[in-house]
Sequence to fold (253 residues):
Amino acid sequence: MFLEKHFLKRCLFIDIETVSEYPDVDSLPENKRVLWSIKANHIRKSIGSREAEFTDSDLYISKAGIFAEFAKVCCISMGFLHFEDNTPSEVRVKSLAGEDEGRILEDFSRVLVNHYNDPENSRICGHNIKEFDIPFLCRRMVINQIRFPPVLDISGKKPWQTSHILDTMDMWRFGDYKNYTSLDLLAATLNIASPKDDIDGSMVGTIYWKDDDIDRIVNYCQKDVVSVIQVMMKFAGLPLFSEDSIEYINQKE
Fold:
């Protein structure tokens, strides 16, 4: 079964990178430090660990970045497809990144409102976005007091009312909801060449807070967007894009 080509039209492919709000647990405001200690206890119980093995500080460094209550968005990469003769011919990738999360989210919201405002005629696609990227973005928009674009206004909606959200991990499950497949594994399984990278998701916080290297994070995030696009090309039974047909247009603060 191949995905119809029209699903790729007016489709925005996204990936986000998130980091802890503060560089370390000692920098947290007192009330958040207490609340993080409670969260850390839950994490330790879930992994069967004692505090001596993973302290609150250890867990803040390794885990805080995935919780919207303790983290922020530092990069959103977006991919757009250009069509010729009703066939995808070129990829354009743009990133919003930097220290000002509010500005990143405002700019992203503006892209959605200006170009992908109608859920009936627009789509957002990514890997595991239903369980991570979209909920994280929505929570951080509430925190930053940014109004939801219609395509993200999904709270309380039924599954058939959010069909404009395309999740490659969900699509690969084929109903097997016990299964988790990483983007790297899915790409390798579909024989999609993945550019070698010197980092993985677990290193993003350190690169942001200690190395101060947002460009490296942007590069990593963009590669994931391209991988998602290539996976969707496979689902549609279409040829993969060559490197020559991928254009990068970066925007940072």
User: Anything to note?
Assistant: Strands lie at 11-20, 71-84, 87-97, 123-126, 165-167, 246-252. Residues 5-21+70-252 form a domain with the Nucleotidyltransferase; domain 5 fold (CATH 3.30.420.10).
